[in-house]
Design a protein that fits this description.
Largest sheet: 8 strands, parallel, barrel
Strand content: 15-25%
Helix content: 10-25%
Structural class: alpha/beta
CATH superfamily of the largest domain: Aldolase class I
Radius of gyration: 23 Å
CATH class of the largest domain: Alpha Beta
CATH topology of the largest domain: TIM Barrel
Shape: globular
């Protein structure tokens, strides 16, 4: 497939749990970010945004050509509607580019209160067929986020029938419940996953029993893996060409509660794959280092979810999950002196002199070096950076720039 056959370059949509993560997502290559306000979203424990944060985030993103969407995707109860119209009016005033909504009643409230605020239909609406997509298109909705249970072939069929923007997840944690419509958390902990309070009950470890004469009988033998409902994480990095050719307009990364290192690393990897394929689709070759980058931020083993087949036990995690090679976000580059080759680093995790570190940044080659010399701000030599957020002066072997990340491989105890 050539560029002429592909209507437009797909959007790379990244999560942003707070203002700092928004900035990293945009700088590392996101075309758009989705955030949560302090109401009506499904990530109550994410940092979330005040209206003031939203204002700053929108200004930062728009200055760099990126968009900001607000997730307002709870399944509402009667009491949730108090103040909702005013909330959407404020989002419209701030300049939010779109809101992501699941509940039809909330769609109506938003469109009446803030008619200039674009509405996208959330994955929580469980859209799995082209007729449902057609329904929302006829309602004037410009984009739907498909359920994660939709296959790649079904996406192709949807795009053949309906002229509407399609957003689909390509990376991140997979909820075991249908399109994330969980009741386990509510039932077991009184925390409603559909109103932002998920306790991740599915990822707990369970022992199974059956009722029988004489009492409960275990359905496991001594030493068996404990049972969980824990999916491997979605990763479609190697299949981005197929996603683009199927007509997906927005490629979405999950993870508003994930770390800065996760957001920067994953966004940067997908950015490189999308750009490489778009520029030379006929000669595109997937580079192993792109997958290696993803693995440095992976929390769990990876799967392609529902895109190519119905998931089996091979797509689930049982017992003790395998250890992943993980990296710590150890330092943030604040400044760099070209004459001395010294970088000013804000410490985010412990590191020591003599340790091997890796620097990554947007639109640059990563490099690895060993820390030979470092000092505090007063110029006193340091053996280790142990204090959170302390400023460290570090001799670097190649030029760096603000917002570059310094990371170290985690030491497993």
């Amino acid at each position: 497939m050539t560029n002429q056959k592909m209507a437009k370059k797909p959007e790379l949509l990244a999560p942003a749990g707070n203002l700092e993560k928004l900035k990293f997502a945009v700088l590392y290559g996101a075309d758009a970010v989705y955030i949560g306000g302090q109401q009506y979203g499904l990530r109550a424990k994410a940092g979330n945004f005040t209206f003031e944060d939203m204002q700053e985030g929108v200004a930062f993103a728009h200055e760099r050509g990126a968009k900001v969407y607000v997730a307002s995707n709870i399944m509402a109860h009667n009491e949730d509607f108090a103040g909702m119209a005013e909330y959407f009016q404020r989002l419209q005033q701030i300049g939010i580019d779109a809101v992501i909504i699941a509940d039809p009643a909330i769609v109506d409230v938003c469109r009446e209160a803030a008619p200039d605020l674009e509405v996208h239909i959330s994955t929580q609406a469980s859209i799995t067929n082209w007729q449902a997509v057609q329904f929302w298109a006829e309602e004037g909705i410009p984009r739907v986020v498909l359920a994660r249970e939709v296959s790649l072939q079904e996406i192709r069929e949807i795009k053949q029938h309906v002229d509407i923007e399609i957003e689909a997840f390509v990376h991140g944690a997979m909820c075991i419940s249908y399109s994330g419509r969980c009741v386990l958390s509510n039932h077991m902990t009184d925390r409603d996953a559909n109103r932002g309070g998920c306790a991740q009950s599915c990822r707990w470890k369970y022992e199974l029993y059956e009722e029988a004469e004489g009492g409960e009988q275990p359905l496991f033998a001594e030493g068996d893996d404990v049972f969980t409902m824990s999916s491997k994480d979605l990763c479609m990095l190697e299949h981005i060409p197929e996603m683009i050719e199927a007509g997906v307009d927005s490629l979405k990364i999950e993870g508003r509660m994930k770390s800065i290192h996760y957001v920067a690393t994953v966004v940067n990897a997908y950015r490189q794959v999308i750009d490489a394929y778009w520029e030379k689709p006929d000669t595109f070759v997937f580079q192993p280092e792109w997958k290696e980058e993803i693995m440095k931020a992976a929390n769990r083993p990876l799967t392609t979810g529902f895109y190519f087949h119905q998931p089996t036990e091979d797509d689930q995690i049982f017992g003790v999950p395998p250890k992943m090679t993980a990296y710590d976000f150890s330092g943030l580059v604040l400044a760099y002196d070209e004459e001395t080759g010294i970088a000013k680093i804000e410490q985010r995790n412990h590191f020591t002199r003599g340790q091997e570190v890796e620097f990554i940044g947007p639109k640059r080659e990563k490099f690895v070096q060993r820390i030979k010399e470092m000092w505090d701000e007063a110029g006193n030599p340091l053996e280790e950076a142990r204090h959170a957020m302390q400023t460290v002066l570090l001799k670097v072997e190649k030029p760096v720039k603000p917002y570059d990340l310094m990371r170290t491989e985690k030491v497993r105890k």
